[in-house]
Amino acid sequence: MIAPLQSWIDTGGRPLVIAGPCSAESERQLIETARRLRQDNRIKVFRAGLWKPRTRPDSFEGLGAKALPWLRRVKEETGLLTATEVAEPEHIRLALEYGVDILWIGARTVVSPFIIAKLAEALQGVDIPVMIKNPVHPDVHLWLGAIERFQKAGIRKLAAVHRGFYFFHKSPFRNAPMWEIPIALKSELPSIPIICDPSHISGQRALIGDISQKALDLEMEGLMIESHLHPEKALSDSQQQLTPGALFHLLDQLQIRQKSNRIANNKLEELRAEIDKIDAELLHVLARRMEIIDQIGLYKKHNNITILQLKRWRNIIAERLQMGTEYGLYDEFLHKLLQIVHEESIRRQAEIFKDKQKGKK
Ligand code: PEP
Ligand code: MN
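^ Those are the sequences you sent over. The predicted structure of the assembly is below.
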């Protein structure tokens, strides 16, 4: 059983907001950032990385245990809950000793079931919330497996953190959001609260607002956003941190939509029923198209004509593209759709040619 988020943290029915610097850099930085963030009561949890999993050596690797008393001071002075990343059983031991309220497991750690098993073992019998980031690559089962290992160790206050996925191709994001992956996680484990980390998805300040809005529109239950008093001077992730002021402004802009509103739901039901009808028509029309394709296939076979007739296909594309564009359909979508329909038509005709050959034997 996974405890609902609202049972362990009171957000007043609003999305949970976790904010704070990527890394703890000094006692003063931590206390002053927390005091500033505290001025907005939508922020409930203060995050700061102490042990930083850096991809390359020689980057700033965090101040480690030295910063734990500072985090405790943040909690005592501001009343904010505190959260940090743990990657070794020793980190867990120290974080518990210093009263850190929430632990999170980083994306690079979640890829290793061996490490996750050790961390889960270190948490056996401890009642502390644990947030599990998605693994670096889009593997929903690895993510799920990590959550299950903590569940088996008796942790009930669990949340998943969507922080995007490494993507080899060029993209505007540091980590591609691939929204279908957290959605798949939610359908496998509907009780898991999902929090979005738009900072690590975006990698740049300008995209954080849109990603945050999208996360809320997909019913994610909270946001973890990196915030630094002087982002340009931050020792890690300087491009993706917001000043507290910019963060407050971003939170002001977010639309928090109703999850269940009867009037909206009725309208939504009506529109969904319409879509169901249209999809049924669409499939019927496609099936009709394929029947005709089969007849064409037979005709070509009987008359010894090749399946693929490039010239005709080019004409079809040009004509349908124009027609579709006039209907307001997006060019790239039309290309993909026509391509898929064409591939299936060729496949069916090839089947017909094969059958005929079989028949000859
Ligand atoms: C972080 O939250 O600063 C961090 C290192 O995150 P991730 O594990 O998502 O890269
Ligand atoms: Mn970071």
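The longest strand covers residues 16-20. The pocket of phosphoenolpyruvate (ligand 1) is lined by residues 22, 49, 53, 106-108, 133, 163, 200 (CB under 6 Å).

Shout if you want it in another format.
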